[in-house]
Amino acid sequence: MPSRPAPAEAVTPDPPGSIDRPLLTQSWLDVALVHWAADPADVAELLPAGTRPDTFDGAAHVGLIAFRMHRVGWLGLPSVPYLGGFLETNVRLYSVDGDGRRGVVFRSMDASRLIPVLMGRIGFGLPYLWSRMSFRRVGDIVLYTGSRRWPGPRGAGDRMALRIGERIGEPTELEHFLTARWGLHNASFGRTLFLRNTHPRWPLHRAELLACDEDLVAAAGLPAPAGDPVSVLYSPGVPARFGLPAGPLRAG
């Protein structure tokens, strides 16, 4: 008889442990986090085997996350010039596996450098895509743009502008749920793996979404967002560390 899935672990604003010998180090800077509620049924069929939608008050969520990747390094080595910094925009979902580990699942990862795109696709089976991208900040307004080059759909992209608001002293339960994620679920070479990460507690600001013209969510296989987002946040960023992939998983 198959074992019963474990209950989801608690949401904690700080990582549950440390990673002393990281596989990968990087920093995420000028991070825009825009989220819409989604039907769990629409999300479930897009998750890796052994995982299920992680829900908050019965709703799943889809995130459109834009940021500057900075100082990417491998195995504790220094960042590689040019390749260690680029722009990235992700469409991500929220998952929990049969061991109760909460994580994110990336449906698309648009990036502005081709070589990191190829490394992510070939080495980890991640859905990286090569895009033409830009970032600009004027005062308290940040602007992210992107247009997909390869492999497609060509031209899919986004134009997103946020006004940064006040620093958040204590995030809400939903804000913790959407940001305090200490792992990644990914289907790679026929297995579902869990890649653990750590970083300092997010410094978060509430933000106003001034403009959002995007078709990345639909290109990722999800219904296009309807209505206003349920959460709009900005963070100046955090340094992050990733450990070795772990698996296999019990059934989710």
Briefly say what this structure is.
With 252 residues, this protein is mainly beta. The protein has four helices and twelve strands.
Structure description:
The mean pLDDT is 93. It is built from 4 helices and 12 strands. A 9-stranded mixed barrel has the order 1-3-4-5-6-7-8-11-12. Helix content is 11%, strand content 50%. Strand 5 (102-111), helix 2 (114-124) and strand 6 (128-138) form a beta-alpha-beta unit. The protein is mostly beta strands. The two termini are 14 Å apart. 38% of the residues are buried. The protein has helices at 40-44, 114-124, 173-179, 216-219, and strands at residues 24-38, 51-53, 60-74, 86-97, 102-111, 128-138, 141-150, 157-167, 183-188, 191-198, 205-214, 231-246.
